[in-house]
């Protein structure tokens, strides 16, 4: 049997250390010890402040750089890869306008949300370590359950979207090499299933990283990859414009009557595709759903140029996408992992299977603290998201649905309602009315995006065979 490890620091109780074992460390809240003399109080206070925050938790180890890496990894993800398709649907006028409006809305509401990191006083108030904690402190009631349901369902969906996006980039590498070898007229058809399984296997290993604050190095690597493939995409776009001597596309986007892989675009399909594009753009700004957690610690962009040379440059960019999505998957899933494990540790606090951790020596790494519940449930989670991705490999449709489901409630509604509650903004005041108008407008945008994305799924299902999707 592996040696059992101590899963949390020693608890301080009246100046003495009491060893606590087999309780998950994120449940730990330290009580500042009481001193018996003034001198002892000074010494204890000094040592205590070095180890714990003002709310009794262990000092946070995150920095501005690690937080920035998390944000970049979350923002420049698979959502960016669908923007070319989205702008193609809306055209050169509506596309940039919608993109800019979403950016301003997200920036504004994210600032409102960050104001809710502490309950009460924004400087000295109690910290809210998760999005649900912030909703609980400011709104309470059933809204907490509703928020949790939407947030964690959205995070689950993001994992599916990232699995699909990574498989598309993996296929792009193989297809570009196939075209380079056999010519651009070669069909080079292949299935996405093997690539999704490969990505799933990678995530099984990386999902065993215990906590959100321990994936900072993966986020830094992912952020570097983000800049890599974004730079390649921009460079290829500029090169294509220079080669053509003009900009392609139209002011109103894809035209009625255009022949696509799904058939001829009808007037109704044009409407649905435009609505779906709203969802895709909304998804590109979906990092608000993990902003509090950060604060507390297929038209693939590179396969839609119409050419596959220089193939080696496209390979580098697509490899960068895959590496980035490996990290982004963890950034979005770690809050969901923590929620399930915290809830399980509270419900089955006496179960060794759920709470006990064991020291597992790993060569060239050190000692890894193995928890059997974490190992099994996270593996099941990754396997489930992989299987669903193989069942519904419709990248743009999935991205649009996720954007529609998450944008209004998590990016707009809850931040606005929490801000109104915290700042005690009165009903029917000018600011209250302005905030409500913003919320209602975004609600209708989310409804339109959801309708368009569902219509896209229905269209794709007409030619769909489970586990037999190929490109």
Helix fraction, binned, reads: 55-70%
Q: Helix/strand/pairing class, anyone?
A: mainly alpha
Main beta sheet, described? 3 strands, antiparallel
Average pLDDT level: 78
Distance between the termini: 48 Å
Count of individual beta strands = 7
Helix tally equals 15
CATH arch. level architecture: Up-down Bundle
- Can you tell me the residue ranges where pLDDT is under 50 for at least 5 consecutive residues? 6-35
Oligomer state of the chains in this structure: single chain
How many separate domains make up the residues? Answer: 1
The neighbouring-strand order within the major sheet is 1-6-7
Fold and architecture overview:
This protein has about 475 residues and is mainly alpha-helical. The protein has a single domain, classed as Amino acid/polyamine transporter I, CATH 1.20.1740. The chain is built from 15 helices and seven strands. Strands 1-6-7 form a three-stranded antiparallel beta sheet. A two-stranded antiparallel ribbon has the order 2-3. A hairpin with a 2-residue loop joins strand 4 and strand 5. The chain is globular and about 65 Å long. The two termini are about 50 Å apart. This is Amino acid transporter transmembrane domain-containing protein. One of its GO terms (biological process) is amino acid transport. It is found in: Membrane. Keywords: Amino-acid transport, Membrane, Transmembrane, Transmembrane helix, Transport. Its main location: membrane.
